[in-house]
Structures are given as structure tokens and as C-alpha cells.
UniProtKB/TrEMBL annotation:
SMART domains: MR_MLE. Residues 148-245 form the Mandelate racemase/muconate lactonizing enzyme C-terminal domain. Keywords: Aromatic hydrocarbons catabolism, Isomerase, Manganese, Metal-binding. GO terms for molecular function: chloromuconate cycloisomerase activity; manganese ion binding; muconate cycloisomerase activity; racemase and epimerase activity. The keyword Manganese applies. Coiled coil: none annotated. InterPro entries: Chloromuconate_cycloisomerase, Enolase-like_C_sf, Enolase-like_N, Enolase_C-like, Mandel_Rmase/mucon_lact_enz_CS, Mandelate_racemase_C, Mandelate_racemase_N_dom. The keyword Zinc-finger does not apply. The gene is catB_2. The active site is at 169 (proton acceptor), 327 (proton donor). Its cofactor is Mn(2+). This is Muconate cycloisomerase I.
Length: 373
């Protein structure tokens, strides 16, 4: 096979409406903004990827606009002319010229994997060593901000067999109000569903010590990122005392963070996100650290659209133990698609076909319609 070179790297900002406002502690989403990567290669193959965050700069330290600027000005020129099939060399070069920027790098790594998969006729999961499953359990986030509406939404998801695991976004309201909200939802759903919470760092340690006990005693299965990522001592103490397991999310901003969290014993579950690590290959390095440390795994999301969701899914399909399932529901939060065939959700799972690359094609009309001008 002749060598294919990277000819062009494009980043397109796309704004898509959501099915309802999505309330997180730090931000209420009225829409989602995706950064779609297109990498054109000299053999005519195009790889697609996605670099997506939540709420501009409210969640992570890259915004859609900064990702596009950094890709256009720094990352794309460094890649042009490189061997498109040597993903190691390409990502090492990006690590050399750009510190951090894991969201942008994740979109690029995904697009290079998609291109190589298409070139070789292999799904990305097979490029990553081979899948050990074809589908993934998918949780749904209840985040309407209203207890009765959240219960009705959960009942509907159970009824249509789309989700039986629910994550509740809390932290912004007074503590007792949030606790009442969670307990009411858990009581309504009972043993028919797993109920978990994500505090997005909004409690201090004193609140978390109390709240984790109350939630654990009321049947909540998992507590995600209760306190600030910077309070490592507090995370270690909570991990020892909470009756419900503690999951690290924002605490992991890199593979190195994952290592030091594991070394400190600061969480018993890791939320894996391609964006926080620098791509589908990078996230597996975090997964391997967790596995070696006896930390359980959960397939997280930055609420990506279909491209980023499938890039994550291909990586997660290669993991033997995914004890806590995934939350790869991003496309279902959006009212519009930018790929020709939407990912398939049925029987509580996301089903990932064995088509080459990520297995997706961009819908050019939809992309043009929603691309930011
Ligand atoms: C987060 O913090 O986990 C994941 C699901 C959701 O609703 O928000 C995200 C972000
Ligand atoms: Mg989270």
C-alpha cells in the first residue's frame, strides 16, 4: 500500500438544538456546540472526528472557538504532509508542539483513526486491538430541573426500553432541596432503575461527607465528582467514608491525573472520556491505569454528537470490564443529526456496527445548515 499523506485538517463549528434545556450545576444548555474535524488524505480518504465540550468555557479549559483557532493555527499546519497512517507519529508531534488541548487532540486522533479504518476496511475498535462486545449499556441524564418531569422522563425511558440507569445532575440548589429531589426520584423508580448523581464539584467536603451518607443510605448507587478536582485530600477521605462509591470525572484532565488519583486512592470508579485524555487511544491508557489499580470503569461523555459518541464507543467496546456501563447518549439529547445514519439505541444499549472506521458518513446538507458562519 502506498503511503497516504495528510493534506488538509478542517475544524467546523456546528450549533445544534437540544430536546429540552439540560441543567448542570455550572451551566444550563439550551443547545450543544460540536467541533467537527475533517482530515483529507492524499489517497482520497477523509477521516472525521469531533471535539466537543459543554457550556463554552464553563466545563473545561477549551471552548469550541479556542479549539477551532488552535487547530487552524497550530495543530493543522503541524500535521499537513505527515503520514496519515502513522497515528503514533502524528499524536507525538502534536504533544510536542502543544501542551494540553486534549479536547482538540481527541477530535484529531478520532479523525485519523476513522481515516485509517476506512483505508484498511476495519472498524476503529479493531484498530484499537479488537472489540470484546458489540453494544454498550447507556445511562440517561435527568436534568430538566423539575422532579416530577424527571420522574415522567425516566418512566418513559423504562417503558420504551431505552435506559434503566439514570444520572441526576445536582449541586446548584441548596443541599437539602437537592437531596429531596434525588430521594423522590429513587423512591418513584425503586429497584426498576439504578439512580446515580453527578455534583460537578459543587459541594465542599463538609457537605459531601453528610450528603454521600444520606444518598448512600437511600439507595443511590454512585456519586460522581462531589467536590472540587483540586481538593485531593478531601477526595481521598470521601472515598474512604462514603457508603456509595465515588467516581472521578473532572479530577481527570489527563492520563497523568488518572495515575496520581489511582496512586492516592482518591476514587473507586473513573469516568473515561476521550476529550479529557486526548482521544480514543489516549483514553485507553487511563483505562489501563485504572485496571491495574483495581479501579472500576465507566464510559463517560462530554455530550458529543454522533461522531464523538461513536469514537468513544469504539474505544469502550475494547474494554473487558466496564462495570458501570456508559452514558453515551449525547445524540439523543439533540433534535438534529449531521450524519446520514444515526447511531442505533435499543434494549438499553448502543449498538455499534462493524463498518470500517467510525462507521459514519457526514450529511453534507445538515452540516451546511447548522455550521456556524
Ligand atoms: C458530566 O459532568 O459528566 C455527562 C452527562 C451529562 O448530562 O453531562 C455530562 C457531563
Ligand atoms: Mg460528570
Amino acid at each position: 500500500m502506498t503511503q497516504a499523506l495528510i493534506e488538509r485538517v478542517q475544524a467546523v463549528i456546528v450549533d445544534l438544538p437540544t430536546i429540552r434545556p439540560h441543567k448542570l450545576a455550572m451551566h444550563t444548555m439550551q443547545r450543544q456546540t460540536l467541533v467537527i474535524l475533517r482530515i483529507t488524505c492524499s489517497d482520497g480518504v477523509e477521516g472525521i472526528g469531533e471535539a466537543t465540550t459543554i457550556g463554552g468555557l464553563a466545563y473545561g479549559n477549551e471552548s469550541p472557538e479556542s479549539m477551532k483557532t488552535n487547530i487552524d493555527i497550530h495543530l493543522a499546519p503541524a500535521l499537513v504532509g505527515m503520514d496519515a497512517g502513522n497515528i503514533n507519529a502524528a499524536m507525538l508531534k502534536l504533544d510536542k508542539i502543544a501542551k494540553g488541548n486534549t479536547f482538540a487532540k481527541s477530535g484529531i486522533e478520532s479523525a485519523l483513526l476513522d481515516a485509517q479504518g476506512k483505508r484498511l476496511g476495519l472498524p476503529v475498535s479493531e484498530l484499537l486491538g479488537g472489540r470484546v462486545r458489540d453494544s454498550l449499556e447507556v445511562a440517561w441524564t435527568l436534568a430538566s430541573g423539575n422532579t416530577a418531569q424527571d420522574i415522567a422522563e425516566a418512566e418513559q425511558m423504562l417503558e420504551i426500553r431505552r435506559h434503566r440507569v439514570f444520572k441526576l445532575k445536582i449541586g446548584a440548589n441548596p443541599l437539602e432541596q437537592d437531596l429531596r429531589h434525588v430521594i423522590a426520584i429513587k423512591r418513584a423508580l425503586g429497584d426498576r432503575a439504578s439512580v446515580r448523581v453527578d455534583v460537578n464539584q459543587y459541594w465542599d467536603e463538609s457537605q459531601a461527607l453528610y450528603a454521600c451518607r444520606v444518598l448512600g443510605e437511600n439507595g443511590v448507587d454512585l456519586i460522581e465528582q462531589p467536590i472540587a478536582r483540586t481538593n485531593r485530600g478531601g477526595q481521598v477521605r470521601l472515598n474512604q467514608r462514603s457508603p456509595a462509591p465515588i467516581m472521578a470525572d473532572e479530577s481527570i484532565e489527563s492520563v497523568e491525573d488518572a495515575f496520581s488519583l489511582a496512586a492516592d486512592g482518591a476514587a473507586s470508579i473513573f469516568a473515561l472520556k476521550i476529550a479529557k485524555n486526548g482521544g480514543p487511544r489516549a483514553v485507553l491508557r487511563t483505562a489501563h491505569i485504572a485496571q491495574a489499580a483495581g479501579i472500576a470503569l465507566y464510559g463517560g461523555t462530554m455530550l458529543e454528537g454522533s461522531v464523538g459518541t461513536l469514537a468513544s464507543a469504539h474505544a469502550f467496546l475494547t474494554l473487558n470490564q466496564l462495570t458501570w456501563g456508559t452514558e453515551l447518549f449525547g445524540p439523543l439529547l439533540l433534535t438534529e443529526e449531521i450524519v446520514t445514519q444515526a447511531p442505533e439505541y435499543r434494549d438499553f444499549q448502543l449498538h455499534v456496527p462493524r463498518t470500517p472506521g467510525l462507521g459514519l458518513r457526514l450529511d453534507e446538507q445538515q452540516l451546511a445548515r447548522f455550521a456556524r458562519r
